[in-house]
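Holo prediction — magnesium ion.
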Amino acid sequence: MTATAQQLADVLRPVKHVLLDFDGPVCSVFAGLPAPEVARRLREGLLAAGEQAPAGAEEESDPLALLRLVADARPDLTESTDAALAALETEAVRVGRPTPGGESVLRAAARSGRLVSVVSNNAGVAIEAYLTEHGLNDYVAGVFGRAPGDPSSMKPNPRLLLEAMEVAGAGPGHCIFIGDAARDVEAGGAANIPTIGYANKPGKDAKLAAAGAVVVVDSMQLIADAMVWAMS
Ligand SMILES: [Mg+2]
């Protein structure tokens, strides 16, 4: 067993509830319908509704950042923009790319008697559509997407993690969060939950470690394997 595998097994041993980020650890949401295209369509929707895109919106290629921007500049448009984005995300996940080992983590959690909640800045409806399409509903106890019309609920805010823990009835000592962004690690820290960093791109490992991830891995399969080892 490598040092990382041993570390993972140690970190996972007390875990009864796995909180799992969606975009990255489970699938690449915008692999088929790219994020800049989704952002462009969101802007187009605003214009079609007779609205001006707020300052800075034209250059924003991250649709979730664009939603925040609209919410800050035009709170009255937050709800409709969020709904439009949720529809685009649902379209995107149909052509999204499953993360290698992501499904294995869901199966390993079930096999090892652990509950999984998906906790994500993406829309819950899109996440549920993906899980249904891939036959994964039975592996997920709860989906905690951003609160519709309230982008302030998104990570690094710990709110969604706290909600997931509350529903699962497991304290932070029995939880682990798996995420691929520094804001995930920050949200985990704010909720008192250790976070495993999934570095799916070069350079992410340093960022995740600096944010305070307990372990950083470059493969979801490693986490799945360690979940089963950690049982023994
Ligand atoms: Mg992510």
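READOUT: The pocket of magnesium ion is lined by residues 21, 23-24, 179-181 (CB under 6 Å).
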